[in-house]
Specification:
The protein has 581 residues and is mostly beta strands. The protein has 4 domains: 13-123, Cholin Binding (left handed beta-beta-3-solenoid); 164-225, no CATH class; 239-309, no CATH class; 411-579, no CATH class. The protein has 3 helices and 45 strands. Strands 21-22-23 form a 3-stranded antiparallel beta sheet, with no helix packed on it. Strand 27 (346-352) and strand 28 form a beta hairpin. The radius of gyration is 43 Å and the shape is rod-shaped. Residues 1-27, 241-270, 488-502 and 505-518 have low confidence and may be disordered.
Length: 581
Amino acid sequence: MRKQTKLVAVLSAAALLAMGASMTSFAAGWEKDDAGVWHYYDRDDDMVTDEWRKDGGKWFYLDDDGDMLMDAWVDDEYYVGDDGAMLINQWKKTLADEDVNDPDEEGEHWYYFGSKGKKTVDTLKKINGKTYYFDEDGEMEYGWYTKNNDVFYLGDEDDGARVENAWRWLTNPSQEDEDHDAAAAFLGCTDSSGDGCDEEGWYWFGTGGKMAKDADKKKVNGKYYYFNKHGQMLYEWINDQKVSGVAPATPTNAKLDGSIPAASAGSAYIDSMIYTNEVEDGSRVDGWYQIDGSKDTGKDTDTDWYFFKDGKAKKASRTATDYRVNNNDGPVYVARIKVTSPKGGKEYFAFNEYGQMQTGLQYIPAERGFYYFDGNGYPVTGKVTNVECDDDTYEFYFNKNNGANAKGLNGEKSGYLYFNGKKLVADDDYRLYYYNGDVYLVNTKGKIQKTNRKYDIENSGIEHDKVDVTFNNNGTVRGISYEDNTSPYADSTGTVALNDVELIVASLYETNNSFTFNCDAEGKYSERYVSIPYIQLYDDDVYTYDFTNVSVNSSTGTVYGLNSVSERWFDVNFATVGTWR
């Protein structure tokens, strides 16, 4: 039976030949009937049927009625064009042979007919420098395509060329038609996967067209990029596989393994925090960036400065080196890290465990000291006034010398007494302070007193308005007495101690409540007889002294003393969290 033909579109304009010129140029043997149909007669004047005939270097097909076919399939392997000639090295978009007679069929496909005129089937083929894939029926593949555990993208339905060494912004395969279900399943982007596969994203197809995925980092055109297991380029915050603490309830795609443990919303700690540019770029960043924090750590509503080296945020680690203290929001870890300064050169800045740059007064555990950072994050040396801590403001002094550059000063400087940078002062008159095993007397400006005379001491245990104070040669207090030269103190046994130095230290015994070494309910020692310096950086913590036990000789009245052996953070809500000095 004569095959019906259908006009079709062709890929190449070169395939559209002038039909009239082709027909009238046929040699002897060809004849056109009254209906305008060409036939071929052999030497015996018999009409040729079901055969190919070559004319003018081209092949033509005569069907079982002897009609020359035009714009039609031949045996589901060859195709003849509008002029009846076999297509050689040409594209054709048409219905499949089996669908030609189906009036409801609209699914045309691209086919390629090679040098012998046969359609290309079940293979890949390079055509004009581009690579194409064809299925077992010869239909050109397009869109998402998987082969041998690799993923490719073959352009849209009218392109089909394999994408190589190029970026593409694409809808993931689960959002396309069912023909791409295999790719969706392979990439883990099915509706049931639920692990952070975005509907759209940037994909990189490298040499050979293979899609990049599961890459810790990949260098593309001199820049580094990161991809999740779905092949989508990760952008902005990227966190590695390990999440500690409480992860957000809603998973994000910002992880190299593509998933985050389900948990209630809250603060989480990320082992490695990487940041890349926004989605329009996505390349790994270096240097300073003022950005919102990571959603996975619950810091996405906070805008802070971060410093990145090879895409990784500089930050404190949750180790003994960067040991924590507590504020109202939980643990805080701080490290002083030397990075490139916006002013040029290198400078120390403070970062917490999330990589957020810190300002103001900070305790740096690894450095065993307090530092102050201005509003731009730079460390400050020398005198700093109005430093906030303990719900008040104080004057601090930070070292200028290279050996302890910018660390809070301990001890005496220019006649003033400092505890980790904090100037120790009296509130109204004069105050006794215990520092590093000695007792000092200071005025309201913090000046250390060294003159033997009467002083009005504000410590509550000194009940007389004026008492006689004597000093050692180094300016430390030697003794305190009334006008009658009797001591105002007795030890816990009621025995009068033998010398004033021991009496002063004995007050620490009273403060510590019979050898219990805890702070009071506010995290501080009593200031009854002598003030023990402290710094309260957060509401929940106090940095002060810790003490060893004492011995009291009841027969002689000798107080052997509460000796300071360390400085320590006292955690009011929990327990002492560590000795840092």
